Description:
Elements: E1 2-5, H1 8-11, E2 15-18, E3 41-42, E4 51-52, E5 57-58, E6 66-73, H2 82-101, E7 110-117, H3 119-122, E8 130-137
Amino acid sequence: MYRNACSAMLFAALGLLVSxxxxxxxxxxxxxxxxxxxxxxxxxxxxxxxTVEAFPYTECDVAHSHEIFAVITNPARxxxxxxxxxxxxxxxxxxxxxxxxxxxxxDSTLFYSWIVPSxxxxxxxxxxxxxxxxxxxxxxxxxxxxxxxxxx
Length: 152
């Protein structure tokens, strides 16, 4: 399971837990988090529950809610706690945003957010340490196309 701190615009400050499974990488299957790649577009419905069983992705040329712009491995050996992971993700994702989008997050019409591992995911046999950074539209509208290098 993964915890997500999403924009208030889209998720009204929900802490979204995301459990990611699946091996087949077709557009209707969930992402297997260890296989998460930068540039993949995902579509979380606005009414996503606090706990979901999939991290749904789609092709970037169709309407979607977010795009993965960075996947960062947290170097901590022991679970640092949700608040510490949130702080780490905020700093690391902010730093990666400019490189991917081509403009500072402070000047962009996009917002950025992140998905961090839960305690269970961290301590699982896979020992997940990935922070997944995502960008979405600042006005809550769907994205169409990649945000990479758009400077929006």
